[in-house]
Amino acid sequence: MKKPLILILLIINARLLVAQPSADYIMKGRALMEAGKPQEAARVLTEAAGKSGDYRLLTERAEAFIQSGDYTRAISDLNSANTITPGSGEFGLARIYAIRGNASTSVYHLELCLQSSFKRSEKEVMLDPAFSTVENTPEWRQFWKKDWYNNYEKALAEIEYDLETGSLADAKGTLNDLSASYSESDGNVYAGALISFSEGKFTESVRALSGLLQEEPSDEKYLRLFARAQAAAGNHAGASATYSRLIELGVPDAAFYLSRAECFRKTGENDKADSDVTKYLSFYPGDKKALSFAGKVASAGGDNIKALEYFSDNLRLHPNDPGCYIDRANAYFVSRSWELAIKDYSMSLDLQPSNPEVWLNKGISLLNAGKAEDACHDFRMAFSLGNRKATDYISRNCIK
Prior knowledge:
The chain is 76% helix and 0% strand.
């Protein structure tokens, strides 16, 4: 038994070693496309495609070519992806031919997609702007006369839509109908976990998903919701482990690093949090949330100079965001640089004057800078906006 087990483990590890670099290239490519740099994204993905047989590198590069208007090369990549993994390029081909106005060829490839393991949801197809050029054609109307989704798939999609739009009662009603017809379905359990999550019953959601993951431990959809439910339930260590699992599986979503960093920060693992947010920033170097988080992690780790560098970078990139001024002001506050803190708190209040916490902190900074009269004004402003902590400062410093 030992030799086959060792062989299986070696195969799994080899796949993970291949998957992870591919995922990094895909995330980099997506970030560049989101930044409006599809040609640069194509270059990055070309570098990776020469090292790996991962079909996803080709479908992702095809998307970069589509954004560049190079449909011929995109079609070539998608056909190559189909050769590696049948069905993987069909949705992309359907989109390209729709963009070109070739309705018959578009629906041909869309049919192949919906008959494959890469089947897309009806919502995803209908909301894709690529198909807007053919949606009024006879071929498109004829295509949708066939039921491509069974009643069960439609019901699950309806539950997801109802939860997205806040119609919890409708979602519950649909699940009740499903349970009556499909009593022992994993889809029912997943839908129930979604509803529990929407209701704030995070422990129930975790329990349901734990059962599903025992049967399908690598299901991306289950793992995504499981991580969110674990974090919401306060199990940040468990959530970080689930995000690690998704990353190890090679799922190309940079947001996992930021989410895992938040979990690590809450478990006091600042070095790991710093590593993950740095990884995220390698894809999205100007991301406001990530830069703010990176500064807070550095501050929590006792490196206030590094924190100030992150916060200053964020301000340079987002000079009209009050939160960016607050972050840097708080760092100055911690280091007792009162005048600098006052300046940044003041800039924040110019942009958002109704923040009671900022009025209080600015008042404390003024008090420490020897400006008691101005501090009392700020304490009263904080109190008038609902900050009860200001009461103590007023009674101790402003009542004579």
